[in-house]
Design a protein that fits this description.
The chain is built from no helices and eight strands. By secondary structure, the protein is mainly β. Strands 1, 2, 3, 4, 5, 6, 7 and 8 form an eight-stranded mixed sheet that branches. Strand 3 and strand 4 form a beta hairpin. The radius of gyration is 14 Å and the shape is globular.
């Protein structure tokens, strides 16, 4: 099975863009939400990385995470989700895979 995202190890300064949709494929209105990208490995307890996402177009369900130095320093396959928080309600997207590949 292919990863949902493939990115180069140790690169930073670019965006990972996301479109949040409901189960019917309709864009999820992100107005008023705080969005966090959470990343972990199945074989390691706890989160390896957590970072805030900026909303690009709330009504279209689009947001992006700015990859910072040190965020993806090890090659491998990671699990991730977006956590949406608004007025004391926390909702998580489905899990997706991020594959970090060696960079030459």
């Amino acid at each position: 099975m292919a990863a949902d995202l493939t990115i180069p190890k140790k690169d930073y300064g670019y965006y990972l863009s996301f479109t949040v949709q409901d189960s019917a494929g309709v864009a999820y209105d992100l107005t008023g939400y705080t969005i966090t990208l959470k990343v972990w490995r199945k074989d390691v307890p706890g989160l390896l990385m957590s970072g805030n996402c900026a909303i690009v177009a709330a009504a279209n369900g689009t947001c992006r995470y700015s990859v910072v130095a040190g965020a993806f320093n090890k090659a491998g396959t990671y699990q991730a989700e977006l956590e949406l928080t608004k007025s004391g309600v926390v909702e998580s997207t489905r899990n997706f895979e991020i594959k970090v590949e060696e960079s030459h």
